[in-house]
Amino acid sequence: MVSSNFTLSHPLVQINVLLNARQITVSFGAQPVLDHVDFTIDAGERVCLLGRNGAGKSTLMKVIAGELVPEDGELVVRPGLRVARLPQELPRDFSGTVYELVAQGLGDIGELITRHHQLAQALTSDGDHGRLMAEMERVQQALESADGWTLHQRVEATLTRLELPGDEPIDQVSGGMGRRALLGQALVQNPDILLLDEPTNHLDVTAIRQMEELLLGWQGALLFITHDRAFLQRLATRIVELDRGRLRSYPGDYQRYLKTRENELAAEDKAREQFDRELAREEAWIRQGIKARRTRNEGRVRALQDMRRQRAERRGRQGSAGFDLQGAERSGKLVIRAEGISHGFDGKPLIRDFSTTIMRGDKVGLIGPNGSGKTTLLNILLGDLEPDRGRVRLGTGLEIAYYDQLRQQLDESRTAAENVSGGADTVTVNGQPRHIISYMKDFLFTPEQARGPINALSGGERNRLLLARLFTRPANLLVLDEPTNDLDLETLELLEQLLVDYTGTVLLVSHDRAFLDNVVTSSLVFEGDGLVREYVGGYSDWERQRPKPATGAAARRDNGAPPRKQAEQPASRTKLSYKDKRELELLPARIETLEQDHETLSQQMADPAFYQKPAEEIAAATARLALLEQELETAFERWEALEQTSKG
Q: pTM for this structure?
């Protein structure tokens, strides 16, 4: 989209300003996605770009990266400005090593550097050394003439800094390592501005935190898009929101933005209500009889016409997703019991001697690195995979709805609506029929999108489509495998609240730390070598409960947050004995067992039929309940005392 109305200028003289976008406009339909927006990036700042799926965030990034020419406006940049954009996926046609992928960021010189590296590797093995040395000399001369040795050193330094295995084929490294290699490709360009579009997607928590540390230590300016609230809170020094084609800037972190934005939206709603009341009064006045029209004030008429124009041009906020969960008949009290489960592949243990009991209403998170076995454990717990050892017992009356991380449930040959309804014109929601187009509007799909092919949908829209399909099915056990990828923050927070309010049972695999903290009541954590431990609470609760190494950077970090004061002063801590440390490690499981026993006994005693039993049984149960309450109180007090002692 090229237009003579757009200009690119270079003489930016402000000391800190790297880029200044003025009155930028981009349209792909009736409404512009960027509507005469102004935007600046200063040296060293980290800006998070927020907005709904489809609001135009990636479009703005493409304009800044020079990949898209807007139809109007001016982009003023500092002379020699370097901008690098981290792609979301590895290039499909690339089959080289990690070293070659990183060096590719330097263009033609990168090819020379790659060839030099390949020749150096080849010379260490048997072969035609004379021919190799002749080519090596030509490559070295080309590098010298292009002043390429400095860039060669930059590639080596980038690989070291990011701890990248340079000689590993890119198709044999993990997804997190591949994403880090792409980051290296961007950083090797030594950009003044680094653009990141959803950099944490499909990364496990370890990889996300490593990326956080790298970006916190990087000195350039950063513009990034993310739905990961913990990542956002840690990194952003300013937040820019793209809403209805306009940009608003909010200095400070995410929590400050939320408070400010809430006040702004309330003020906007109040102003619109006042405007609409005034417009209604003026419309009533203009429609008065002939006598009023003869004496009407022409200035007032022109003001009314201007108000009509403003009302017609008003762009309302995009509606919120309005989906709801369908409940099924309650399952039995016991949902899943696993006893002594062990399973592995190719001699590698994924799960060793694992046992758990999941009761109705539990919300259980599965936490662990990519490839650790979380999906395997889900399949075992659901009875879809037989373990090597141990057994699983499923409760009665289970109706399961499964959200598939890999999106295998979507049929590319069918429309979006057909994927949800199976081809029917209606779906049944909470016992009531609804037209499929109306139902999909709740998930923010236009009629055109609903009737169109799914290959035109973005990643976030595909996720919403899967949720739309999932929620047509009554269920008392929800199994969600990475449901948050690509969702915008508003939809993510709505899903979060739905799960909190859901009365059924939830099994949730996620790397989103805030999502886990806000939803789950307990966590199954893969801690390496097949060991799966159960903890009370979410990700942050696990961080507090798990055994910490006594030294090293990992002991000084807590959930990706800045080092705590007590962690910076380990000498002031009171050391626990080995016995106390062991007790502290085991107490969370002990407390959970006591809570489960207390809940089971309380529910039994809540049944009126219980009191038809012999008096001795009733007295014994009452005494047992009092004892459980006493033991719980003692266990909590002991846990708090040991935690306090361990922290000093």
A: 0.68
